[in-house]
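PROTEIN DESIGN WORKSHEET
SECTION A - STRUCTURE
LENGTH: 215
TOKENS:
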């Protein structure tokens, strides 16, 4: 089974082909583009396929990061994964950015993943040393998560690490596309659908008082 992994949840736009039997990336492409994921994603998918010497018909599963992260980026990646899976008749799997970061920062002690959500808020989740989740993904104020971090006996990783613990190194929220592929290859599609993980509501709010009264 060949896995196509897609990550558009942050400023990066990446695609890779992964062989889980050999635990090897066959081809990868992408860049930290900031914006424009919708315009560039299929270009990177095609480049990854070319590097691997494969076609879309060789893919047996699609894995995509579902957030938290960029609202638009997540929507682009999930829509592409769902569309390709439907067209090819194969399963699609969603992987959270928090779990991918935890896998990239595996330690011998419990790990707190903390992503800077801006607006004085943090996306966070706790993981055991073996990578299993100890809490659900959540969003809270910097002050609230800093209090939680004070009682956390372990490492902190992610872009909000320096906000939560004095002296902590500023982290990154970029995840390795190989990690996304490996995690998704081992998940049950029935329990991990490619569904956006939006921990914060949309900015756009319906305007009241401007509806047209029906006759």
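SECTION B - SEQUENCE
RESIDUE ASSIGNMENT:
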């Amino acid at each position: 089974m060949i896995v196509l992994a897609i990550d558009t949840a942050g400023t990066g736009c990446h695609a890779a082909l992964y062989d889980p039997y050999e635990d090897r990336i066959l081809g990868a492409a992408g860049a930290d583009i900031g914006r424009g994921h919708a315009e560039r994603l299929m270009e990177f998918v095609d480049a990854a396929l070319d590097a691997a010497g494969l076609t879309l018909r060789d893919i047996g599963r699609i894995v995509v990061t579902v957030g938290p992260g960029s609202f638009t980026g997540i929507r682009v990646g999930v829509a592409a994964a769902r569309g390709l899976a439907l067209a090819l008749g194969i399963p699609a799997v969603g992987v959270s950015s928090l779990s991918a970061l935890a896998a990239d920062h595996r330690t011998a002690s419990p790990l707190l993943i903390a992503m800077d959500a801006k607006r004085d808020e943090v996306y966070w989740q706790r993981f055991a040393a073996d990578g299993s989740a100890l809490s659900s993904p959540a969003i809270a104020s910097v002050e609230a998560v800093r209090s939680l971090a004070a009682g956390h006996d372990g490492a902190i990783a992610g872009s909000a690490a320096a906000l939560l613990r004095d002296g902590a190194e500023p982290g990154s929220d970029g995840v390795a596309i190989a990690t996304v592929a490996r995690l998704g290859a081992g998940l049950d599609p029935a329990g991990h659908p490619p569904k956006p993980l939006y921990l914060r509501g949309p900015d756009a709010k319906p305007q009241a008082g401007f509806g047209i009264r029906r006759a």
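SECTION C - NOTES
The mean pLDDT is 92.
The chain is about 30% helix and 25% strand.
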